[in-house]
Design a protein that fits this description.
Blueprint lengths: L1 E6 L20 H21 L4 E6 L16 E4 L18 E7 L23 E2 L2 E2 L2 H11 L4 E7 L3 H7 L4 E10 L2 E3 L18 H12 L6 E5 L7 H18 L2 E5 L3 H4 L5 E5 L2 E6 L11
Parallel strand pairs: 1-2, 1-4, 2-3, 4-7, 7-8, 10-11
Antiparallel strand pairs: 5-6, 8-9, 12-13
Length: about 290
């Protein structure tokens, strides 16, 4: 099977400022690194799931953002601008699916986070049949013309409504949520310094942070955690529980935690005591002594 990846920049996590989106910008190297690593992660998953050929179309600005020297050697790469069909150059009917990574919202989207459609200096808005269209929606029209289905959209959370309305068969994976045009939220797991490390190199506590980040990728209403601090020391246990409290407070997400750790239990708003396969009682934090020995 053949996969086509069209990767943009503004919809990627960690990319927030105009200082990151042009080759001459002071923080562009950070954005390039984010793009390359996420492309590699996508390519790796595609090969694991049965694809035998992957072509990546670098699709932001001058379209030379991906670091060729660090790209997965199994993937092909299209770079450079201008080129025919822009973000989908190289796509034809021989491909089985298209994956859109790092896409931003359409020009004019409130809280869109670097919102624009193709060229912000030229277009204030693009409409198709009266509907305001993003680059994603316009590009899916072209993929349909080629007879290749769009499979995934990973980018700004506000594109989710566009997917639900116009392309409900596409999997929508929010990577960030715009707060304003130049501010965005993405999970605060404190792992930026590990961007160059392989999966086994961060500590156990930091790997737990990665697990939480992955669990939050689709903004679930409920997150299940089974003994999350079983392999952690006291310091990392306190860091993890502080992160959970912060996410619960700011994102209003519910965390259901199975634990034997009193340090974790005392931070919960409700404590269900399980005994002999059933619920032995429901308690508040102040009643913890009834549940676990102090």
């Amino acid at each position: 099977m053949k996969a086509f990846i069209s990767v943009d920049l503004e919809g990627l996590p960690g990319v927030t400022s105009l200082t990151m989106v042009s080759p001459w910008s002071s923080q562009f190297s950070i954005a390039s690194k984010v793009m390359t690593r996420l492309v590699n992660a996508t390519v790796d998953e595609l090969f694991k799931n049965g694809f035998t050929e992957v072509l990546v179309a670098d699709s932001h600005g001058y379209m030379t953002n991906t670091n060729y020297l660090e790209l997965d050697s199994g993937a092909g790469l299209i770079q450079g601008y201008p080129r025919p069909f822009s973000m989908l150059s190289g796509l034809d009917e021989s491909f089985n699916a298209v994956f859109f990574i790092g896409y931003q919202t359409a020009a004019g989207t409130i809280h869109g986070m670097l919102d624009h459609t193709y060229n912000g200096r030229v277009f204030t808005e693009i409409r198709v049949n009266g509907v305001r269209a993003s680059e994603f929606l316009i590009n899916t029209l072209y993929t349909s013309e080629q007879g290749v289905p769009a499979a995934l959209l990973a980018g700004n959370e506000y594109l989710g409504s566009e997917v639900a309305t116009h392309t409900p068969w596409v999997v929508s994976a929010p990577l960030k949520k715009g707060i304003s045009r130049y501010a965005a939220y993405y999970p605060m797991v404190g792992l930026e310094r590990h961007v160059d490390k392989t999966p086994g190199m961060p500590s156990v506590g930091e790997q737990q942070g990665v697990a939480i980040a992955r669990a939050l990728a689709n903004s679930p209403a409920v997150v299940l955690m089974d003994e999350p601090t079983g392999a952690l020391d006291t310091e990392n246990t306190e860091k993890l529980t502080a992160l959970v409290r912060k996410l619960n407070r700011e994102l209003r997400q519910t965390f259901i935690i199975a634990t034997h750790d009193i340090l974790v239990a005392r931070e919960c708003t409700r404590i269900f005591a399980i005994r002999d396969g059933g619920i032995g009682g429901v308690h508040g934090p102040s009643e913890l002594s009834r549940v676990l020995p102090v």
